[in-house]
Amino acid sequence: MKPTDAVLSTMPEQFRLTRSTARTAIFATLAAAALIGLVLAVVEFDAIVVDSSDMTGRRAGMSGLVAPGTVVLTAFFAFLFGWLAISGSYTWQLLPSGAPLSRRVFRIDCDAETAGRWHAAFASGDPAQYLPIGSHKKGETFVGIFVSTDEQVAFVTVAHGTGASTRTWPLITLRDRAYVQLKSLATADFGRPAQRGAAGSIDPFLRG
């Protein structure tokens, strides 16, 4: 599916969702290669069985899994790369420059009041306030983090609910130290308390 965002989608003058030609081409090429591999694995299934029967030692017990395993793996990668080529090649761009925005989304199982506290934490620009943040398998609160290394700015969106009942909070813009601190966080860092450091600065004009 497209990486929609309840906040950015209401600001077409500043943000644009577009398909990345380069990523689409890469994933399509990988999908085609995996599909060719799948066809070859099916056509040459008997030959693979015969060849794998020559396995000796500890690997001998796995000989019966080689042929079906090859088919399953190539089918999986053909599906995965095909899905990425169709649905996973979209990216948000910052206008008017067209600079791409990297994207992280955290799903949190909490109520609207707690979602508001998450918004306040990120609006502070201080990692000590918004870390750690977990990501749950279910929940109606979504925190989106969008970073532009070209423009050296980061944006944070907070939304609670789905469909017409979705509640959103003003867009948070992080610059200077706040931007650097957020951009420097690796995936694992979001699940740990922040290291000691000063808070950054934010855009005083929060937009909703």
Q: Would you give an account of this structure?
A:
It is a single chain. The chain has 208 residues and is an alpha+beta fold. It folds into two domains: 8-19 and 92-202, no CATH class; 21-87. The chain has helices at residues 21-43, 45-52, 63-87, 112-123, 127-130, 176-183; strands spanning 15-19, 90-94, 99-108, 141-148, 153-160, 167-168, 172-175, 201-202. Strands 1, 2, 3, 4, 5, 6, 7 and 8 form an eight-stranded antiparallel β-sheet that branches.
What is the element layout, followed by pairings?
Layout: E1 15-19, H1 21-43, H2 45-52, H3 63-87, E2 90-94, E3 99-108, H4 112-123, H5 127-130, E4 141-148, E5 153-160, E6 167-168, E7 172-175, H6 176-183, E8 201-202
Antiparallel strand pairs: 1-2, 2-3, 3-4, 4-5, 5-6, 5-7, 7-8
Structural class: alpha+beta
Mean pLDDT: 87
The main β sheet shows up as: 8 strands, antiparallel
Q: Point out poorly predicted stretches.
A: 198-208
